[in-house]
Amino acid sequence: MVLSYEELLARVAAPRGTGRPVREPATGDALAEAPEHGVDDLETAVRTARAAQPAWDALGHEGRIRVLNQVADHLQDNAEALAQLLAREQGKPLNGQGARFEVGGTIAWLRATAATPLEPEVVVEDESQRTELVYRPLGVVAAIGPWNWPLMIGMWQIAPSLRMGNAVVVKPSEYVPLSVLALVSLVNDVLPPDVLQAVAGGPDVGARLTAHPGIAKIMFTGSTATGRRIVESSAKNLARLTLELGGNDAGIVLPDAEPDGIVEGLFWGAFLNTGMTCAALKRLYVHESLYDRVVDGLAAYAEKVPMGRSLDEDSLLGPVQNRAQFEVVERLVEDAKARGARIVTGGRPATELGDLFYPITLVADIADGAALVDEEQFGPALPIIRYSDVEEAIASANRLDAGLGASVWTSDVAGARAVVDRLDAGTVWVNQHGMVHPFAPFGGVKASGYGLEFGVEGLKSVAAPKAITTPVG
Ligand code: NAD
Predict the structure, then answer these.
(1) 211 and 308 inside one domain
(2) For 370, which DSSP code?
(3) 203 C-alpha to ligand 1 centroid (Å)
(4) Does residue 196 have its Cβ closer than 6 Å to ligand 1?
(5) How high is the pLDDT of residue 473?
(6) Of ligand 1's atoms, which has the minimum distance to the CA of residue 173?
(7) Which domain, by its residues, includes 15?
(8) Are residues 323 and 375 in the same domain?
(9) Is residue 280 within 8 Å of residue 434, measured between CB atoms?
């Protein structure tokens, strides 16, 4: 079954006058209304998910893998409609690393998660006993996501949970509910009834879901502030937590780097999804010997990358998704200007494109302590800080409470290892930034959260280990 964009939207939109109005960030046009689910809907979702979970578990790994691959085929058939909806609602362009890329990644992640092997582990085998560790489903997983990569991050939570035999209740971000509801609706064309549910609503619905006694595990991706609230509410149900929280990733350009060879990687490391990416490069430290060449190279590259409306096939960068985030970016850039930092490109709203467009803004001659360096901008503004001593750059990279990712840029990959080893982050990339892989565990340290997603570690994080000991001889 292949749905048009209009048919897909009609499935998930609330009747006119009954839901929350959703506007397209790129144009300000009304898109549709999103349903607002209440306490009763939440209770029903958790109860029916619990009831459906044992039969889903009973299918076993082979059975579930087969169903998940059928889901992936069905999503592939409907990829274009999903991408159209995502582009309109989230604001990201269709092309480049935009909506079509996100939908493709979502499907690829599902297939990779289905294919990830998780064998029982023999942990003791001696003359008296054999102990095997197996992984059992937890029950119902609550999946709460942000607005920047709603389908991809949604699938990062849903796919491993389902693969391990759990049921899932999804609470999409209130900024992008329709795209996530459409994803869930398509998945449910194939999945047995009630195994996957969605409740749309704001923080209040999220708070109730995370404290619900029927929830065994919370997969949360969002801000550090919300993560702290979820830790508190999980005291009530003792749900296990995976917290993927905010980042403020540093990149260090070492003196031996070749500027011309790294500019493109630096640019997309910082401005993937117009900077609204958790593990984007958010503070760039460049050795003084290369500083001007890197700044000029980034500025020249930025000029070539078109920003525009989501449905314009030429756009590679889009608007900031919502007004609140737009104001964060604007405030941080204005503060940098007031401190005397140099605006190399951008620096004021691109009102000619629309109300929520902010251009690529490179900010040079700025130092640690400026708000644009110390706070997560989550948008198209990058502070570029000059350093003279690598020790100083390492100390700067590690001085904040965030620790999601970091990167080192060099012509000597092996030699850079000494710097890589000293960076406090869940992932450190060399000569790239922000690339994730379905088999490479991903998670933060410090206030960027705890727990791992992806690969075997990701499957284990949505399961309960059970040690089975049998006598030998
Ligand atoms: P947010 O914390 O405002 O919202 C995330 C989700 O939490 C939304 O669905 C929201 O409705 C819900 N929520 C809000 N209050 C809640 C509560 N008390 N209990 C339960 N749920 C609640 O985050 P956001 O603004 O949507 O996303 C941006 C942030 O997410 C940035 O800081 C970014 O770095 C981070 N992020 C992290 C990752 C990662 O993998 N580490 C990925 C993407 C985004």
Answers:
(1) no
(2) S
(3) 9
(4) no
(5) 78
(6) 9
(7) 5-245+448-469
(8) yes
(9) yes
Domain assignment present for residue 443? The answer is no
Q: What is the DSSP string of 14-26?
A: PPTTSSEEEE-TT
Looking at the structure of the chain, the number of domains it has is 2
pLDDT at residue 367, as a whole number: 98
- Known catalytic residue: 376? no
Question: 420-435 as b/e, with b when 16 or more CB fall inside 10 Å?
Answer: bebbbbbbbbbbebbe
Clarify whether residues 210 and 140 are in a common domain.
yes
Tell me, yes or no, whether 332 and 359 share the same domain: yes
Out of 174, 244, 376, 453, which one is annotated catalytic?
Answer: 244
Asked if 278 is an active-site residue, the reply is yes
Q: 68: domain CATH number?
A: 3.40.605.10
Average pLDDT per 10 consecutive residues for the chain, totaling 473 residues? 97 96 98 95 98 98 98 98 98 98 98 96 97 98 98 98 98 98 98 98 94 98 97 95 98 98 98 98 98 98 98 98 98 98 98 98 98 98 98 98 98 98 98 97 98 98 98 89
Task: Judge if 385 and 452 occupy the same domain.
Answer: no
Whether 425 and 405 have beta carbons less than 8 Å apart is answered as: yes
Going from the Cα of 220 to the center of ligand 1, the distance in angstroms, rounded, reads: 7
| Residues 167, 270 within the same domain | no
**Which residue, by CA, sits nearest to atom 39 of ligand 1?**
244
Q: How far is the CA of 33 from the centre of ligand 1 (A)?
A: 22
Other Cβ atoms less than 10 A from the Cβ of 40: the count is 8
